[in-house]
Amino acid sequence: MRITVIGAGTMGSGIAQLVATAGHDTSLVDVGEEQLRRGRASIEESLRRFVAKGAVAESDAEDILERVLTGTSVAASVADADIVIESVIEVLEVKRAVFVEAARYAPADALLATNTSQLSITAIGAAIPVAASRLVGLHFFNPPVLMRLIEVVAGLESSEEVIERALEFGASLGKETVLCRKDSPGFLTSRISALVRLECLRMLEEGVASAEDIDKALKVGFNWPMGPLELGDFNGLDTYLHILESLERTLGDRFKPTVTLRNLVSAGRLGRKTGHGIYTYPES
Q1: pLDDT digits (tens, 9 = 90+) for 45-99
Q2: What are 26's strand-pairing partners?
Q3: Backbone angles phi, psi at 152, to 5 degrees
Q4: pTM of the model
Q5: CA–CA separation, 223 and 13 (whole Å)
Q6: What is the 3-state secondary structure (H, E, C) of the chain?
Q7: What are the structural domains of the chain?
Q8: CA distance 241 to 158
Q9: Are 215 and 199 contacting, i.e. CB atoms less than 8 angstroms apart?
Q10: Distance (Å, rounded) from C-alpha 151 to C-alpha 115?
């Protein structure tokens, strides 16, 4: 199959690597060459780590990288796509604009998927009423090449055929899938994760424990692969703030962001991508 991934950030580049690893011809699209350069460099670095660990042969890594083509034109990249996966910033208007363009130029039978972690699939699809039945949520987890789950989310207009195609596609990538039948804010996973991570931020603010010990408690005591505070830095604290603000609007004060989170984002301390978030990271 031919897969187009729109958005070359942390998640988009990871999804592109995953689908290319599964043998699909992959187009990675973004508005700027610099973002595409960073996205491709991220894939190269990830593949180098897999090769160093003996998980992927060097020749296979080269083949995977060759299957990932980059470009800045959505129209050209989706023209012959079987599946279009959007992975841009968690802002409804931005995602809608992406799908208006993608639906205009993609084949009439292409599956359209959004990697949103909490925005309404139905609200996104309202921008493309003619193609809304082909839109579904495909929520990958970071890093997509390692995390085992893909959450499929049905919008109000999503057809049963498209839902089934999405589930089959997720399984073809070697992932487990769950289906969120009701297009509810936060779906299954983001709603639970956001609350746990928010409580960890509150405990940090209250001085209950250090960031290191809070993360260690969740990793060792509950088998989390990454501590909630580490995860915030890894994904970007600005992304987490967007998610919480959206959930607060729809589900109430229990998702209200903490003062510390707002201050970190205001100060540009967004996590790994800026070298400083809840933790501080070396330049390398």
Answers
A1: 999 999 999 999 999 999 999 999 999 999 999 999 999 999 998 889 999 999 9
A2: 3, 68
A3: -95, 130
A4: 0.84
A5: 26
A6: CEEEEECCCHHHHHHHHHHHHCCCEEEEECCCHHHHHHHHHHHHHHHHHHHHCCCCCHHHHHHHHHCEEEECCHHHHHCCCCEEEECCCCCHHHHHHHHHHHHHHCCCCCEEEECCCCCCHHHHHCCCCCCHHHEEEEEECCCCCCCCEEEEECCCCCCHHHHHHHHHHHHHCCCEEEEECCCCCCCCHHHHHHHHHHHHHHHHHHCCCCHHHHHHHHHHHHCCCCCHHHHHHHHCHHHHHHHHHHHHHHHCHHHCCCHHHHHHHHCCCCEHHHCECCCECCCC
A7: 2-180 (3.40.50.720), 190-273 (1.10.1040.10)
A8: 28
A9: no
A10: 9
CA-wise closest residue to 123 among 152, 151, 95, 101: 95
Taking the mean position of all CA atoms in its chain, how far away is CA 95? 13
**Hey, what amino acid is at 69?**
L
Mean of pLDDT values over 108-136: 96
Task: Please calculate the CA angle 94-95-100 and round it to the nearest 5 degrees.
Answer: 100
